[in-house]
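[retry 2/3] Membrane-associated, metal-dependent hydrolase: previous attempt timed out, resubmitting with same input.
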Amino acid sequence: MTILKSLLYRLGLGLGGLALFWALGMLSTNEFGKSAAIMATALPGLGGLCLLLRARPAWLSTTTLAVIAVFFLDAATKGFLRDYFGLRPNHLLVLQAVFNTNPAETGEFFRHNWRDVAEASAVFTILMTAVVVLERRLSRAEASRVLSPLRRRSKIAVATLFTGFVALHLNPTMAKENPVLYWPIRYLDYKGQLAHADELQRQLDRNMAQRADWQVRYHGPAQKTVVWVIGESQNRNNMSLYGYARNTTPMLDTMRDDLTVFRDVVSSEPATMASLMKMLTPAHLDDPDAWTSKPDLLMLAKEAGYRTYWISNQMPNDGWLGLVANRADERVFINKGSGRGENNFDGNLLPDFEAALASDAPRKLIVVHLLGAHPTYDMRYPDEFARFDNTDDSVMATLEAQGRSPWVRHARNDYDNAIAYNDYVVSSLIRKTMAATGASDASLLFSSDHAQEVGHTRNHSGQSVADASGYEIPMLVWSRDAVDARARAALEQRPYQTDRLDHTMLGLLDIDTSYYNASHDVLSDAFVPMPRRINGRAYSPSGHAVLPAEAG
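[retry 2/3] Membrane-associated, metal-dependent hydrolase: success.
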């Protein structure tokens, strides 16, 4: 056997493994092509270099296994992240989730997704074991016979391959696909994005000195309380309030006549930070960077004379959301742990909420940020709300008929338990607002940041960029001012997307400003429905979003 044939045999092992990752859907065609191109130069180039330097035979075997292991591990990781997020791992949403975390959240993530991690790990282990076995056989065969030395032509071929491997890295796109460089480069990109965002925020703070441009005017009563409850990861299709087969919202159901329940609302994004950035500021899908030069809702409320409160069961955030929360006059973060995996239930916010309601400020804006149904679902409710554990009902029968796995069916039960507990929390917030505000002007709006896919359209539980179920959220309003049944029924059918929710909130706050547009206020008589988009595609309630074609 010639040295060159030996190198090509080893390359065949690596490319064959990558092809299997592609066949299993863990690599896209684009990713497979780029990884194969790098491996085709890296493996024979680096292996041949060992031979040119007359290294020990074991070095060739070690180099081969190391290169293939790096590529296979990269493919397994990308496959897992693709399955979880529905996107390539270099998408900003994925990078935010990967890098903006901590040990507690990482532990929670693996606890919730251990089956998917185990599946990707099993594919990696099986393929890598096969390569190790075949490599050892080849090494033993080479040891029993004399390989012909590298001829001049073979040396030129090896040198060309190694040079090609180095030259590929002159192309930034290809360099980023090198598994060894993939995450370090993206981490540096992500840190650069954070630094850029910090600079933009400093610029925003400087711009905010020009308050005259805001043209803020309050035109409401002397006494006014507005509560905005921001839910987390809640899908309206899992609420009996919206017709779900399970009785997951019994308390809100009993309050139905007091609520305006919007039937067709979608989030603008499938992830918390990107969604809230558009809900809390003038930024929207057509102008996502407007938050860098225009005031957010808390700024405008304070300018209008409101005392502002931020009460949260989310972890204190040192990023953009932390900057917004820190503008509130009073801030309470009850989650003292290091992540959203803490077993701190949303009901523990109620005493702090009551204290805010009891404040003697004439005008109050109270923002309540819940943990809602954020994964891991079974950490979001106390034991007495485990109502759907081991339930054998029509929901389970439907999921089983659709071929959903046992763990996705189990996740659905946990998720519905979390929805039931959220029903208790949100209904309690509404009742406390009713009781504390007496006859004064008061209103409460509840909306979720985004939704969850829990076996609705595929065998997956968690966030989803690709599925409509990742965006279809509940939104409801309680107001002291009664709305007659006919007008309320018409309001509830209005289609809406939450990137314009700041306009609705400004309307509830009775604030006129240059940043308010009544046509985007879903409660206004001047409201005009707009086309909605999820994941860059037109949304309709009867259809599902599809992933757009991946860019190179």
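[retry 2/3] Membrane-associated, metal-dependent hydrolase: The two ends are 39 Å apart (CA to CA).
[retry 2/3] clearing retry counter.
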